[in-house]
Design a protein that fits this description.
The complex is a heterodimer of chains A (555) and B (353). Chain A is mainly α. Chain A contains 25 helices and two strands. The longest helix of chain B has 32 residues. Chain B is globular and about 60 Å long. Classes of the chains: A mainly alpha (555), B mainly alpha (353).
């Protein structure tokens, strides 16, 4: 029953997505079918682990159902005009679904393709784990590199002589067939090698030789970070800047939500406050203060922190769900205020504020994307170090204690009022800083930049990365801000994918891509339970235990 | 007594009270200023109040969906605003087809019923699928997890419908029967507003009866008290939860049609603001509390419609209607400062962690 549901969801997706490039369209079409086959095979394997025949059958069945749903869509679409309602049910879509063939013959093709693809993926499932993961990883690399072809080629062309060595991998668009085979080969080979025993042994030797390797890696990544904008050109720098701004906000929200467990859905408010304070303080257009960027920065940050505390006060006593709606409301209030005619003389109304000062170092104005990159990099590093130092400090442990159980924390001597207010203040600080840089980067701010979506973006990135985890913020920002920036043609579907990823993430891997150790324990209680945990000396209750109690109380 | 009070009072409490009282003061001063200006007659106020009640009825119907689900699962179904959107956004195609064929003008009432039925069916389906696919696997997960899933589902649904029906705005056809207004002496009442208020009230009564009087309503209340014990008593908890989602979905579907009568354009994003307001209304009345949601919706509708003119106009703020959403949210904060569990309070049997 669930299989047919999966199939239906698949069909749903097909209709929602317009195909630009045929190849990409086919990947989008076939990937869910392959996934359905894989899932079906795994379900079957849970029940009858010893019968590969049945597993293959289940996989094929899933693909067949998925294919049949598409075929049914084709037939219906042929008989009545769906376009009046579903605007994307265009002839071009049918063309893709039928793999470019004519009507009666083409209907059979998706069924056939569904069968073949899902059978293949069920077959992959039956392989031993090592080659299985190698094949899956290699296939993903091929898709990824094919997708990013244009950008990679631009970057490679910047490198001069090396370019001619690599160019032949790529065709007019996407990878050339030879290139695809080569990439597949290299990726699967690498994956196989990495999981092989001698390689594992070799890799394991490294952490043992501690210090100089760690410093070496640190220095190398430092050099790479410094050189990045110049190696990659201005288009990539712009994306990197955006990623950096979101990392900064993510680090802040990570403290509020990840460390202290206060779900803030109006986080964009502080971003807006930072940007607007910078605008009001520096813009000659409004002409109140005409400060320079560096003069205005501390004032803007102070305003952001103050507003963080002001928001924090009324919500101190509220629990999670109330907190979420009130903070959301606060974010909207700020947006409506800057948009209103009432404050137009001070904040520019819907027109926004122009001519915002850019940071200067001596005579040099940091105006280009590449130059601003360093400001953002430095801010991110500072914010990262602050969060990292705070995490295991007295305050950090108090945050986590409040997150786990406020009553117990209070009984153990944690003051929840100051703890929560400090979380809001720190979060507002980072977000405000990000806002000031954003304002300086664009040279203007308009209310439209500060919608609810920004809050959701930031929340999504820390969840994808792993709540409470600092490297997770970076991973999440790269995945959610960097990737969509690279794949411009997906802009239209970004939010669709966001939603799906958020759901899938919560259903399958709620701890995120780079989880914090403690939270991972919490979310995989049953696995963590048998392990005897030493009592931590801190006031933090044992996570597994406390969350059982909480769940018991709720259900 | 006084001693104990002074010990419990912290600086934070004082500050919160100061914030609350200053909001209150602005409201009082603003209203006094507006009333002393004498710019509006009592007819204007009555007009705004009826408008507010109609809007409030819609909010209340949506809020019921939040409250019912919250009462049983203790989770905020953030995607409920998309459940609300899906109905009217689908039914608009039926409405337009009926209008083109002339059926709508000939038989307005059956057509309206058909449109509402379709809208309710779509919303119910979306709500039930949502529960089945997104929420059921997370029944026992930590609190934040289903909430985030719901936010994801909300975006997913919004953009799925955008992909299905396009990003443009679709307009509902006008219905000749409901155009114009009745005059009661000096008072002018728009027909649509009457229809909206009446149907909202009727549906609310029906829902209240279902929850209070029927067997399944009893089961719902039992599950809301304690899932395990209810299961031990032979109640099929899953079925009750699905029924709850269906009930919320159906009322959201009807609310969608009523909303479309008031504002006859629909698009994929139409759910966001009413959803947010309805959620605010549910929290205002005390989330998990069915009469609370109804009261909260009505109060919020009134505040939103009367508030901008009453509170802000007297203070010399231009275009106060731009700030009506702000007034709604500020009012929520104000209420929650003084009554942290809403106007009527939460009706939850077990204390929550």
């Amino acid at each position: 029953m669930l299989l047919s549901l999966v199939g239906m969801v698949v069909a749903f997706n097909q209709r929602a997505i317009v195909y630009k490039a045929i190849t990409m369209g086919q990947v989008l079409l076939l990937a869910p079918l392959a996934l359905a086959g894989y899932i079906a095979a795994r379900r079957m394997a849970d029940r009858f682990p010893q019968s590969p025949g049945l597993i293959l059958l289940a996989g094929g069945g899933a693909g067949l159902i998925g294919g049949a749903v598409i075929a049914a869509l084709l037939i219906i679409g042929h008989v009545i005009n769906l376009r009046a309602v579903f605007i994307n049910a265009s002839p071009a879509l049918y063309q893709v679904l039928m793999f470019g063939r004519e009507y009666p013959l083409g209907v059979g093709l998706p069924v056939l393709a569904g069968l073949v693809v899902s059978e293949l993926s069920a077959g992959v499932f039956l392989l031993p784990p090592r080659p299985r993961s190698a094949i899956i990883q290699a296939a993903m690399w091929v898709v990824l590199i094919g997708l990013l072809r244009d950008l990679l080629v631009t970057v490679i062309n910047l490198w001069g002589p090396i370019a001619t060595w690599i160019r032949w991998l790529f065709a007019q668009s996407g990878l050339s067939p030879v290139g695809a085979v080569v990439v597949f080969g290299i990726a699967s080979g690498l994956s196989l090698w990495r999981s092989s025993r001698p390689a594992q042994a070799w890799l394991n030797r490294f952490p043992a030789q501690q210090r100089w390797i760690r410093w070496g890696v640190l220095a190398l990544s430092g050099v790479i970070l410094l050189a990045l904008p110049w190696v990659l050109g201005s288009f990539f720098s712009e994306i990197l800047d955006n990623v950096g701004l979101y990392i900064l906000m993510g680090l802040g929200l990570n403290i509020v939500v990840g460390f202290a467990g206060l779900l803030d859905l109006g986080y964009v408010a502080f971003y807006a406050i930072g940007a607007y304070s910078m605008g009001v303080l520096t813009s000659p257009e409004l002409g109140f203060f005409n400060l320079s960027y560096w003069q205005a920065l501390p004032i803007a940050l102070a305003i952001a922190v103050l507003s963080g505390v002001l928001l924090g006060l009324p919500v101190l006593k509220m629990r999670g769900d109330y907190l979420a709606i009130v903070t959301l409301g606060f974010g909207e209030i700020i947006r409506l205020l800057v948009l209103s005619d009432w404050l137009r003389p001070y904040l520019g109304g819907s027109h926004g504020i122009q001519l915002i000062a850019r940071p200067r170092i001596g005579p040099l104005e940091l105006a280009t994307q590449q130059q601003l990159y360093y400001v953002i990099l430095v801010s991110c590093l500072i914010a990262g170090v602050i969060s990292w130092r705070l995490k295991d400090s007295r305050l950090g442990r108090a945050w986590m204690a409040v997150r786990e159980d406020q009553d117990v924390a209070q009984a153990l001597g944690v003051n929840p009022v100051t703890t929560k207010l400090l979380a809001f203040a720190t979060g507002a600080l980072f977000s405000g800083l990000s806002g000031t840089i954003f304002a300086a980067k664009l040279g203007s701010t308009i209310p439209g930049d500060f919608g609810f979506l920004v809050s959701i973006n930031v929340l999504a990135l820390i969840i994808i990365g792993g709540m409470g985890s600092i490297p997770g913020v970076v991973v999440g920002a790269l995945a959610l801000v960097g990737l969509p920036g690279l794949l411009r043609e997906f802009a239209e579907f970004r939010l669709l994918v966001y939603g799906a990823v958020l759901m899938a993430m919560m259903l399958m891997r709620p701890e995120g891509l780079w989880p914090e150790a403690r939270r991972q324990l919490e979310l995989h209680e049953e696995a963590a339970m048998p392990v005897e945990e030493p009592l931590p000396a801190s006031p933090v209750p044992i996570p597994a235990f406390s969350s059982t109690v909480r769940d018991g109380g709720e259900s | 007594m006084l001693q104990a009070w002074r010990q419990r009072l912290t600086l934070a409490d004082v500050l919160v009270w100061v914030i609350g009282l200053s909001i209150g003061t602005i409201v009082v001063v603003g209203s006094a200023a507006t009333l002393s200006l004498g710019k509006y007659t009592w007819l204007n106020w009555l007009d705004l109040a009826i408008k507010g009640l109609a809007l409030g009825g819609v909010y209340a119907l949506i809020a019921l969906g939040y409250t019912l689900v919250y009462g049983i699962l203790r989770m905020i179904n953030f995607a409920h605003s998309e459940v609300f959107m899906s109905g009217p956004f689908t039914a608009v195609f039926l409405a337009n087809a009926l209008a083109r064929s002339g059926f709508l003008d000939q038989y307005p009432i059956p057509s309206l019923l058909m449109i509402s039925a379709l809208s309710m069916a779509v919303s119910t389906t979306v709500a039930v699928l949502l529960e089945r696919i997104a929420y059921r696997p997370l029944r026992n997960a930590p609190r934040l997890v289903p909430l985030i899933t719901a936010i994801g589902a909300s975006f997913f649904l919004q953009y799925t419908f955008r992909g299905l029906y396009g990003s443009g705005v679709q307009a509902y056809p006008s219905i000749a029967l409901l155009e114009g207004a009745w005059m009661l002496g000096e008072v002018r009442i728009f027909k649509t507003q009457v229809v909206v208020i009446l149907s909202a009230v009727l549906l609310m009564l029906a829902l209240y009866t279902i929850v209070q009087r029927t067997k399944i309503g009893k089961a719902m209340r039992a599950v809301s008290e304690d899932k395990e014990v209810a299961a031990l008593m032979g109640i099929d908890v899953d079925r009750v939860i699905v029924f709850t989602f269906a009930l919320g979905g159906a009322s959201a579907g009807l609310a969608g049609i009523l909303y479309a009568l008031l504002f006859p354009v629909v698009n994929f994003f139409m759910g966001f603001i009413p959803g947010l307001k309805a959620f605010t209304a549910a929290v205002l009345g005390g989330i998990g509390n069915v009469p609370g949601a109804m009261l909260g919706g009505m109060v919020l509708g009134l505040i939103e419609s009367i508030g901008p003119n009453l509170f802000l106009d007297g203070l010399g703020i231009p275009n106060p209607n731009q700030l009506k959403d702000m007034i709604a949210f500020t009012f929520l904060v104000f209420i929650l400062i003084f009554r942290p569990t809403g106007i009527l309070g939460e009706r939850l049997a077990t204390a929550k962690a």
